[in-house]
Amino acid sequence: MQNDSPIPDTTSSTIKLLQISIAIAGIWLLLHSWVWTQQQGKLLFQQQSTQLTRETLVTLSHTAAYLIENDQLDGLEQLTQHIAQSPYLHDVVVYDANGMRMSWSQNSAPARILYSPAQAEPLMAMVQPIMQGAQLLGYIKLSLRLDASLSPVVMSWQQLMQRLLAMLVLAGIVGFLLRRGFSRFSRQSLRLRRTKP
């Protein structure tokens, strides 16, 4: 004889509570992973932007070295103004070996003003020595706009992360509907088995 006694209500309630707890923990873990991935992506983009700017700065220092050595200060001024037109840079300054300004862009200001906490726009100073062989000719300094240098890439990254979040929500809804459908199907088949003589 088959035992068709139902599962006690307390056991059923405990199982349901356990399932809800696991579902909430899973949702929290997914959201936490999503936020962490978003932050790591932004950090990675910032590191790449800084690295590319550093490599560009090394190349510019070679050009500046040639202009300084050949006493082409007009060319150095043109180079400074041309570099400063980049939307990713706030200002550019070329110093001589003693730290005196030789050429600078329009937005140039003392460091205590540019990099103070009161500054509305976050800037990062990058300095590269201008060398000719072993001789120090000066320094080139630029202020990288952290927000502007990241915005095109970060916007694409944000859109990708929003799509990923939408896919996670959709996967959760599909999983819920599938579970509900299978649950109804199994209950219906159990009822059919019980009604059979």
UniProtKB/TrEMBL annotation:
It comes from the Bacteria. Keywords: Cell membrane, Membrane, Transmembrane, Transmembrane helix. The chain crosses the membrane at residues 17-36, 160-178. The keyword Aminoacyl-tRNA synthetase does not apply. Pfam families: SMP_2. InterPro entries: Uncharacterised_Smp (IPR019305). It is found in: Cell membrane. Belongs to the Smp family. This is AhpA/YtjB family protein.
